[in-house]
Design brief:
Elements lengths: L8 H13 L5 E14 L5 E7 L2 E7 L1 H4 L11 E11 L4 E11 L3 H16 L17 E6 L4 H13 L4 E6 L7 H15 L4 E6 L13 H9 L4 E5 L7 H5 L2 E2 L3 H8 L3 H35 L1 H4 L1 H44 L1 H6 L4 E3 L17 E6 L2 E6 L7
Parallel strand pairs: 3-5, 6-7, 6-8, 8-9, 9-10
Antiparallel strand pairs: 1-2, 1-4, 2-3, 4-5, 11-12, 12-13
């Protein structure tokens, strides 16, 4: 009787995994369902369950794929994911390995967002050259938002805490729905027409991409760009980005952050001023103390106590300097004289008269030209011979060639 072949658990799991991975249908699947039990692990991997009304499957998306997603998945979100099915050998459970994820119903909005972003960017609406500087010490801030939302309460509370002297003017508008974009754009124009606000905050609290869509509309973007008053956008949460964020003069991650950016911290500024005043006062005191100590040291010095003695010593030193200078001048003049006499003697030796004194003579013909060759003289020519102590007159009787 043949003994049965016994397999280990890991061998069975590995075998089943091979079946899954070699099945063409289970590779490159697109699956639609609702997210539940969502968790982002500290490693960056995403773990969740994808379910419909009749079933569920465990899913994982590795960090590399998760990092390229522009949004954070949430429980209850309906999505379409692409990936493959395999077995996790340690537990023997099969699961779906997601590589791509697209929310259902938001694909068209995402495309519209990118198209609008590219269009306005090409026109220069996002350029930093057009960004206006936010007023550092505002008196009046216009807040364009829903009058009943949490955003306006946060803005008012933080603004009053930072500087109770700043006036907050609430301009109520629709922040979502069909007419929201037009309502927001008209409010921006009205505030500019009013002309008393130093800064405009436009925004709302968080929500889905559909809820925030009014702030992606072209009419709102052009109203922000055309505003003569600096605009801070404060739309949604920190991870939410809208077209209004790109075109505004400053983006705040949240409405609360917008209030902190728009309103100067009066108490903080006052504390800084007091600290600066104390530093200046301390510095002045230190300088005065140093000067006082210097005066005390000078007052105790010998020169200050006995000025006549110090003056007498300086006069003695001055006389010594005078004597030393006179000696130096005399020695220098003596050296210059010796050098002058030496040069004069050399010059005398090199002069024509010096040459004549050594027994040489210079002969001139009848044209008073110096004779340097027998060809310069003819027989019978009168000659003048210059010697050191006079001139000898002679007549050429003949020439002998050497």
């Amino acid at each position: 009787m043949l003994e049965p072949r016994i397999y280990s658990v890991s061998q069975i799991n590995r075998y089943i995994r091979g079946i899954f991975e070699n099945d063409i249908i289970l590779q490159g699947l697109w699956v639609k369902g609702e997210i539940s039990n969502y968790k982002r692990h500290s490693s960056g991997h995403l773990y969740f369950t994808l379910k419909d009304k009749n079933g569920a499957v465990n899913c994982i998306m590795f960090r590399g794929s998760a990092q390229i997603m522009p949004y954070e998945p949430e429980n209850g979100m309906e999505v379409v994911i692409c990936g493959y099915v395999s077995v996790y050998e340690k537990t023997g459970q099969y699961q779906f390995y997601a590589e791509l994820m697209q929310p259902v119903g938001t694909g068209s909005l995402a495309i519209a967002f990118e198209q609008m972003k590219a269009k306005l960017s090409a026109e220069g609406l996002f350029d930093n050259d057009f960004k206006r500087e936010i007023c550092k010490v505002p008196k009046t801030i216009a807040v364009i938002t829903s009058p009943t939302g949490a955003a306006i309460r946060d803005i008012i509370n933080i603004s009053k805490r930072r500087n109770s002297g700043v006036q907050i003017v609430v301009v109520p508008v629709l922040v979502q729905g069909e007419n929201a974009a037009k309502s927001i754009a008209n409010a921006i124009k009205q505030v500019n027409g009013w002309g008393k606000a130093d800064t405009i905050i436009v925004g709302r609290g968080g929500g889905s991409i559909e809820d925030l869509w009014a702030f992606n509309e072209e009419i709102v973007a052009r109203a922000i760009f055309g505003s003569e008053i600096p605009v801070i956008s404060a739309v949604g949460h920190e991870t939410d980005f809208t077209i209004a964020d790109f075109v505004s003069d400053l983006r705040a991650p949240t409405p609360s952050a917008a209030a902190e950016l728009a309103v100067n911290d009066f108490q903080g500024d006052l504390n800084k001023l007091n600290a600066q005043r104390l530093r200046i006062s301390f510095a002045i005191s230190k300088v005065l103390e140093n000067q006082k100590n210097r005066v005390i040291v000078l007052a105790k010095s010998r020169a200050f106590k006995h000025p006549q003695e110090n003056l007498a010593n300086n006069l003695i030193m001055l006389d010594r300097y005078k004597i030393d200078m006179e000696k130096a001048l005399f020695l220098n003049l003596e050296r210059k004289q010796k050098k002058f006499y030496h040069l004069a003697e050399r010059l005398e030796l090199l002069s024509p008269m010096g040459t004549l004194k050594r027994g040489y003579s210079a002969t001139f013909n009848k044209k008073n030209m110096l004779v340097s060759s027998i060809r310069d003289v003819k027989k019978g020519d009168k000659l003048r011979i210059k010697v050191s102590d006079g001139t000898i007159e002679a007549v050429a009787e003949g020439m002998v060639e050497s």
